[in-house]
Specification:
This protein folds into two domains: 70 residues, Winged helix-like DNA-binding domain superfamily/Winged helix DNA-binding domain (Arc Repressor Mutant, subunit A), CATH 1.10.10.10; 166 residues, Beta-Lactamase, CATH 3.30.450. The protein is 46% helix and 18% strand. The strands form two sheets. Strands 5-4-3-8-7-6 form a six-stranded antiparallel beta sheet, with helices on both faces. Helix 5 runs antiparallel to helix 10. 33% of the residues are buried.
Length: 267
């Protein structure tokens, strides 16, 4: 899975009250998943007695739960109900549109949102760039996974088993040119995409355009869409290295709006 910005632990100021501290505990556990009460006290700068008092209250109200074997804390059923309600009231397009609009302002090029469908990505929203000559495309139009920035970013975001299933599907489909001979090069492109943080398409789908793409994750940590910025090749190929990080940042912001929290990096 490509790395996305990790959620920073809430910094408590000197005037923080019990509510601030309790919310900071929930926020921290949403990132690390499990930890001890002492870890919470150390991370949030709380005294041992304060941390244990707040944890007891949060456990009693169902916001936190304690694992039977290890004694470690995790988010409890009350937090799960709140998360479920937030997810059900959130839609991908609604959360993405304002981010895509900003992305168009930043890049002056066309920004798009697409979702996976078999071995293609399908446009569900497009914001046309303001330039006189801009990349356009109809909603519902499909783009192949293997040679577009949308598709490559989605492939790069898939966990190992799901990626292998999708690569096998690409090889078996009569509509895909990917065969055993082309697979090593595609794997290299996927790995480069993971390392870079965004995907690139250098006139590979359309000779007249170049594109950057990045994946969007949902609250479960699975990729559910991709964001791209596309422009006329003569303009875009000179600025792909500048546009790529903006696309990755936009995709990470949409992911966060959908409830995605990246796992902290491992040492």
């Amino acid at each position: 899975m490509m790395n996305a910005p990790t959620a920073a632990t809430t910094i408590l100021g000197p005037g923080a009250g019990a509510l601030d501290r309790g919310l900071a505990m929930l926020d921290h556990l949403s990132v690390v998943r499990t930890c001890s009460t002492q870890d919470l006290a150390t991370t949030l700068g709380l005294s041992r007695s304060t941390a244990y008092r707040l944890v007891d209250r949060l456990v009693g109200q169902g916001w936190l739960a304690q694992e039977r074997d290890s004694g470690l804390l995790r988010l409890g059923p009350s937090a799960a109900r709140l998360a479920s309600a937030a997810v059900s009231s959130t839609t991908l397009t609604t959360e993405a549109v304002p981010v895509l609009t900003r992305l168009v302002r930043e890049t002056q090029e066309t920004a798009s949102l697409a979702v996976p469908n078999g071995i293609t990505m399908v446009f569900v929203h497009r914001e046309r760039g303001p330039r006189a000559v801009a990349v356009t495309g109809e909603l519902g139009a499909a783009r192949p996974l293997h040679c577009t920035s949308l598709g490559r970013s989605y492939l790069a975001a898939l966990p190992g088993p799901q990626l292998e299933e999708k690569l096998a599907e690409l090889q078996m489909s009569a509509d895909s040119p990917v065969d055993s001979g082309a697979l090593p090069m595609l794997r290299e492109v996927i790995e480069n995409t993971r390392q870079r943080g965004w995907a690139e398409d250098h006139r590979e789908f359309d000779e007249s355009s170049c594109c950057c793409g990045a994946p969007v994750y949902d609250h479960t940590g699975m990729p559910v869409a991709a964001v791209s910025v596309a422009g006329v090749a003569e303009r875009m190929e000179r600025v792909l290295a500048d546009v790529g990080p903006l696309v990755a940042q936009a995709a990470a912001e949409i992911s966060a709006r959908l409830g995605y929290v990246a796992s902290p990096p491992t040492n």
